[in-house]
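Weekly structure sync, notes
Attendees: PL, DS, HV (note-taker this week)

Item 1: Sialate O-acetylesterase
DS walked through the input record. Source organism listed as Chitinophaga filiformis. Sequence as pasted into the shared doc:
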Amino acid sequence: MKTIRLFLLSTIISTSICAQVRLPRLISDNMVLQRETQLNLWGWATAGENITISFAGKQYETVTPADGHWRVAIPPMEAGGPYDIRIDASNHLTIKNVLIGDVWLCSGQSNMELPMARLKDKYPAVIAAAANPHIRAFNVATRMNWQQPQEDLESGAWMPADPESVLQFSGVGYFFAKALYEKYHIPIGIIRAATGGSTAEAWLSDEALQQFPAIYNSLKLRDQRYLDSVRKADQQASDNWYSNLWWQDKGIQAPVRWADSNYHPQDWKTMNIPAYWHDEGLKNIHGVVWFRKTIQVPAKMAGQAARLFLGNMVDRDSVYLNGQLVGATQYQYPPRKYPIAAGMLKEGANTIVIRLINYSGKGGFYPDKSYQLFTATDTIDLKGPWQYQLGAAADPIPPTMTFYTQPLGLYNGMIAPLLPYAIKGVIWYQGEANSDRAAEYAQLLPALIKDWRIKWAGMHPMRNFPFLYAQLTSYMPVHPQPTNSNWALLREAQLKTLSVPNTAMAVTTDIGEWNDIHPLNKEDVGKRLALAARKLAYHDSLLVSSGPLYKSMTIKGNKIILQFTNTGAGLTAKGGPLKHFAIAAADGKFRWAHAEIKGNTVVVWHESVSKPVAVRYAWADSPLDANLYNKEGLPASPFRTDDFPAIP
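Item 1 (cont.): predicted structure, written out as C-alpha cells:
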C-alpha cells in the first residue's frame, strides 16, 4: 500500500509540474513588444490546459493544443507602457514592466557583438549617462544546432539601460537605439544575436541553404555523433599542444621562473616594441616568447592605482608586474587593458614580464596602439626596447573545426527561437568571415534577407521588414599602389545588395582602424544605421541618409566623368583634394589618378592614360584616406566601373 501511495503521489506531482505554463526566455520582465502589429505571446503547457492572459485591460483565452505549444495573438497596440501581463492557468505568472515600442534585431559577427564594455575608455560620458529605461536589450547567447530549429534560448534576460547594464549592450546596437530614441521618444528594444567570426551561411535556414548545393552538401555536422567526435578530437589536440608547450617552456620549467621578481635574465636579446617577432629575428617561430622591461617609477606614482595598456598581442598573453599576475587574454583581438591595484607599484625599479604564446601567423604586438603605464596624473611610455627570450618553439597549433562558420547552426540555435517575436527590422554587421568568397556572398546576403523575411512572415502579418547593414570598414595595412582586395570585392557585393527592396547600407570605410578588425568608433556606425532606419523604416522622406553612390560614367577624351546618386546638398572633398581614385586603360593596369568635383560629378584623369576605360574608388583593404562625401557629412561607398575578371 505504501508503494502504491508513493506512486500515486509521484504521478500527481509529475502531472502538476507538466501542466504548468512555461514561457520562452524572450517573454519576460522588462521586455519591449513591437507596436502597431499583431503580437504573439506563446509558451508550453500540457495539452488541454486552459490559459487566460490579462494585458492592458483586456483578456485573451486559449486552450493548449495536443502538441503542448500554445500561442495567443494580441491585436496591434500603440507605443506606451509600462504594463504588467498576467497569465493564469494551473499556475500563475506575471510579466512585469513591459513596454510597447520598436524592436530591432542586431545580428552578424563580432563588430555587432562587441559590447559597450570594450568601449568604456572611448565613451565614458555616454556610459555614465546611459540611464534610460526606455532603451532595453536582450542578448542571445551563442548556440549552434545542426539537427533542428530550437524552440527556446538557453539563457537571456531583458535589461533596461543604465550605466552598469549598458556595458553588456552591443555597442553598435546601443548607439543605434539611442539615436532613434532621441529622435522619436519611442521605447526601443534591441535583441543581439551575433557571433564573432560567423559566416553568412551559418545564419541561413535549411530551406534557404538548399539553393547553395556546395554549401548544403557540406552539412555533415547534422550528425550529432560526428559533431561530438570532431569537438572531442579538436579539444584533445588543442589540450595536447598547450600541455606540450608548457612542459617545454624554459621560462616555466627553470628553477626560478622567468616571471618571478627574483629572476635575473642572462643572454636575453633586445627588441623594439611594438613589433612582430617574425620581423625581428624570430622568423617563422611559433610557441612562447617572453618579454621583460624594467621601468623607473617616480615617488609620486608609487603606491597609486594604475592601468597598464599593452595594445593588442598575437595571440595569448599572461602579464606580470614585479612577479604578480595582473592580467591574461586568450586571443589576439581584445585590447590589453589591465588594472594595477593600489600598492603594487613601488618607487624605483619595477619589472613588467609578458609570456606571449603564438599558435599561428606572426606573433607579437600590434603597431600603432597604446603601450603605457599610467595613473590619474602620470604616464610612463612602454614603447621601445624590451628584452626577450624564446621559451619554446612549436609547430603551429593543429587546425580545428570552427563551428560557428558552419552552415545552418546559428540559424537553428539563435534565430529560430526568435521567430514568434514581432520585430521592426534588422541591423546587420557581418562579412569579414566571407571576405574570400565575395561572389558567393553577393548571393548569400540577399538569400539571408529573403529567408528571414519569409520566416518572420510565417508568424506575423509582416512583409519585407527593413534590413539595414554596415558595409565592411577599413582593415589591414595600407598599400602604396592600387592592388588586389578581397575586402573591396566584399564591399561591392554589399553595395549590390541594395537592389533588394527595403534595404539600406551604412558606409564605414572612414571610421576603421587598419590595425584592428574591431575599430572602436561604434557611435558613428550606430548613428549611420539609425539614419538609414529613419529614412527606410520611419519614412522621413526628406532625410539624406546615405553618402554618394556611384551611378554611371561618361568618357570624354582622356577623362572619365562619374555621376552619383545621394549627393544631398552637393559633393565635397573632406580635408583637401580628392584621394583614392584610380584609373586604367584597356590593359586593366590601375594607377592613382587626379580627381576633381564638377557640380555633382567627379572628373578623373591621369596624364599617362590617354584612353581611359575604368575608374575605381576606395578599392583597397584600408581606404582610410578616401574622402569623397556629400555635404551632409556621409562618405561615398567604394566602387569600380569595370568588371575585369582579374583585379590588378
